[in-house]
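Thread amino acids onto this structure.
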């Protein structure tokens, strides 16, 4: 077997490691939405205050994204990934012992920093290991880890909180992060020619400033599309279980099951959209983004129109649409932003994109929570409007590799 074949086969091992890291980090990040019924009672929080937990997490994810992108463009993916996993594990384990809302928010800051690191780190790792022919598929598989982690959180963490306490569930998530860090240390490695690629990327990135990237019109428009979808994504992962429980009267277990269905569908969608983009559309990403944004708009608009009158059984197709859109767009979008600016800048571009797009992650839960205090249907209308804007923005982008100049 040749060295190239060995390298190609180990690429899938690398993908498995990055997938595992993404699952565990998502399990921790999505824990707050899954544990919402328990946490609101334990800390005596209203919807707006509870939404601030998720918003704080994503705010500091945004703040750390660009530094993480610069770091991974210059230094080892392995070291950055190890730090990321250990930071999340330490914060989660410590959070399991607190009983004060302010102390919890402080720890969520560190969780957000860790969660903000994973996207530029994983984008860089996959860009090094996979060529353009399989890149969208690899990105989609890795991004499936987000929804897999959310699905596990909505089932496992709810179960652990029910039979034990919310503290025990959070502690268990922290231990998983530590164990994954050990996995990273033992098995992650650079490609045989990865050193040369990283050195080239470092030299290239030193010549390109963030201002150069910001001047890329197509990159900024794509980031705005992601922002609109992220508003919906963060609102759904924070409030969907609460909505089903408080507005539709479902039990936490049944509500968690619906949320798990959405997460599972989102996970499969991330792979499916990648395959569709790579194969059916011959590497074009924008047509897939148009389909995704359309599904997003249809799903939330249906919830807005139906109100409390939709039978639970008929809610399943809507949940599937939510999964395939708001929870399934990240893989294709991640490849699109990298290819717009060139793969040598993968870490930095991913960091910048997350910084812009995840403004939606920060604002979504706060705005949705504030509107939901008045009426949940109005909150769903708000999400529908943002998804409609994402559809319009899709038709303003010219998809091609254009470097960093508009």
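Threaded sequence (406 positions):
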């Amino acid at each position: 077997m040749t060295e190239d074949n060995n390298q190609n086969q180990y690429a899938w091992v690398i993908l498995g490691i990055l997938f595992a890291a993404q699952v565990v980090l998502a399990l921790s990040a999505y824990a707050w939405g899954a544990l919402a019924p328990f946490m609101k009672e334990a800390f005596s929080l209203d919807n707006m205050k509870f939404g601030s937990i998720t918003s704080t997490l994503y705010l500091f994810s945004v703040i750390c994204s660009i530094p993480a992108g610069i770091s991974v463009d210059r230094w080892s993916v392995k070291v950055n990934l190890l730090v990321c996993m250990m930071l999340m594990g330490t914060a989660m384990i410590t959070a399991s012992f607190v009983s004060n809302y302010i102390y919890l928010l402080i720890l969520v800051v560190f969780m957000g920093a860790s969660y903000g690191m994973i996207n530029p780190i994983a984008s860089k790792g996959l860009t090094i290991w996979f060529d353009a022919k399989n890149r969208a598929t690899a990105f989609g598989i890795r991004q499936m880890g987000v929804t897999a982690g959310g699905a596990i959180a909505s089932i496992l963490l709810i179960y652990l909180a029910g039979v034990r306490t919310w503290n025990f569930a959070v502690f268990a998530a922290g231990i998983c992060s530590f164990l994954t860090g050990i996995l990273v240390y033992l098995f992650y490695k650079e490609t045989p020619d990865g050193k040369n690629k990283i050195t080239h990327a470092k030299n290239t990135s030193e010549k390109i400033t963030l201002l150069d990237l910001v001047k890329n019109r197509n990159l900024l428009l794509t980031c705005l599309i992601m922002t609109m979808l992220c508003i919906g994504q963060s609102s759904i992962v924070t409030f969907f279980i609460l909505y089903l429980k408080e507005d539709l009267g479902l039990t936490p277990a049944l509500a968690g099951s619906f949320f798990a269905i959405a997460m599972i569908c989102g996970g499969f969608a991330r792979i499916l959209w990648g395959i569709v983009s790579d194969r059916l559309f011959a590497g074009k990403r924008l047509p897939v983004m148009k389909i995704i944004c359309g599904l997003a708009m249809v799903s939330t608009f249906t919830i807005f129109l139906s109100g409390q009158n939709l039978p639970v059984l008929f809610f399943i197709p809507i949940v599937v649409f939510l999964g395939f859109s708001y929870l399934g767009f990240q893989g294709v979008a991640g490849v699109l932003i990298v290819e717009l600016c060139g793969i040598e800048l993968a870490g930095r571009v991913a960091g910048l994109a997350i910084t812009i797009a995840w403004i939606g992650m920060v604002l979504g839960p706060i705005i949705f929570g504030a509107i939901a205090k008045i009426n949940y249907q109005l909150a769903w209308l708000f999400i529908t409007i943002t998804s409609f804007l994402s559809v319009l923005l899709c038709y303003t982008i010219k998809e091609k590799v254009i470097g960093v100049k508009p």
